[in-house]
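Quick one:
INPUT:
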């Protein structure tokens, strides 16, 4: 019994120490978030024509608005928007047809091709679309991303800097409505984005994100084309790694784009969170373990349950630092007020995702179950 009490006491002290470190980390991240955005100084240079690859799967809520944001760019050169689907019966086809009639200033092309080139269906879709790209610069962007009118001009400016082989963008969360969408946006804004900005601030990482990857056609050919990444779970990360392997760097501008969250039920929310967690774990296992300090509220609850002193102060401080971080993200990126009352609930679920992510390797993506292999590759579960 004495040994059990000693172990429990030690665990409580670890949790309390984790709370202190977590509070400090969150407050540091809040300061770095406020310092991150800055006005982009456009480089004087050419404006090459751009082909935008948009892999689509179904008519997601608000998709027309998001695709239209890529057509309505304040950009002086030609833009080609290629929308790809792997099914001739996909309801998104009608939406793309409508887009072609309402956005006459942008060339909108539809590519329907069911061929698969690997386990990652999104990348297979992109491979099928790649041949339709006509222009010198290629932009790859997920379907849930929305951008401002100056996005393309600013990104091209970054690409023209010496030594830059690719440009990618961090992103903030926008809830499309409903509690699960709000919780998903909170995950991005109080956990993912602050972690990214902290890593960038200390030059600890220069990854690519699926939100936007911009590169020249010559670079895309040099890294072997998109088919090279057809079995990767973290295809965006793998693309960034391949660009850096050529001796060029990936530039991440000091602005962010919007990621629209539209989960309508707990299951889809949980599956997305688990896929994100296990993706990050496969990329950087050690760094992922370190993200436990993004959970000071849950650690405070555990410490209080064990009987550590000053439980109310620990819990209140942990919640306060999380709300401060959320408020700083809102201020830095001009976001509307988020539901602060959901922050504790989000943190409890997020900690459950964190713990559960170590208990297996399965992820669910577009209704298909995959296993994440040790090297980050995907293997479809046929069972």
């Amino acid at each position: 019994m004495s040994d059990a009490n000693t172990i429990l006491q030690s665990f409580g002290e670890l949790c309390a120490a984790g709370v202190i470190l977590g509070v400090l980390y969150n407050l540091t991240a809040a300061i770095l978030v406020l310092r991150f955005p800055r006005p982009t100084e456009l480089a004087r240079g050419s404006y090459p024509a751009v082909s935008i690859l948009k892999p689509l799967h179904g008519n997601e809520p608000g998709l027309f608005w998001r695709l239209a944001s890529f057509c309505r760019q304040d950009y002086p050169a030609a833009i080609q928007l290629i929308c790809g689907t792997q099914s001739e019966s996909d309801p998104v086809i009608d939406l793309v047809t409508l887009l072609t009639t309402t956005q006459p200033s942008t060339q909108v092309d539809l590519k329907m091709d069911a061929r698969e080139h690997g386990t990652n269906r999104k990348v297979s879709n992109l491979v099928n679309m790649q041949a339709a790209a006509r222009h010198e610069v290629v932009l790859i962007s997920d379907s849930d991303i929305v951008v401002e009118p100056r996005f393309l001009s600013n990104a091209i400016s970054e690409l023209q800097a010496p030594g830059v082989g690719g440009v990618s963008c961090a992103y903030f969360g926008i809830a499309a409505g409903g509690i699960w969408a709000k919780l998903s946006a909170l995950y991005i804004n109080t956990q993912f984005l602050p972690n990214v900005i902290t890593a960038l601030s200390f030059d600890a990482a220069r990854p690519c994100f699926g939100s936007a990857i911009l590169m020249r056609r010559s670079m895309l050919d040099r890294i072997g084309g998109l088919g090279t990444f057809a079995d990767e779970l973290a295809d965006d990360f793998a693309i960034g790694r391949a660009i850096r392997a050529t001796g060029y760097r990936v530039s991440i501008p000091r602005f962010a784009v919007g990621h629209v969250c539209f989960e309508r039920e707990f299951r889809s929310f949980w599956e997305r969170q688990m896929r994100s967690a296990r993706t990050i774990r496969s990329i950087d296992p050690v760094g992922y373990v370190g993200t436990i300090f993004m959970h000071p509220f849950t650690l405070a609850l555990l410490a209080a349950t064990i009987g550590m002193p000053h439980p109310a102060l620990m819990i209140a401080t942990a919640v306060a630092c999380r709300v401060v971080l959320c408020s700083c993200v809102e201020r830095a990126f001009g976001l509307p007020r988020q539901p602060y009352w959901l922050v504790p609930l989000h943190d409890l679920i997020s900690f459950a995702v964190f713990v559960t992510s170590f208990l297996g390797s399965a992820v669910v993506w577009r209704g298909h179950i995959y296993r994440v292999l040790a090297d980050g590759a995907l293997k479809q579960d046929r069972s």
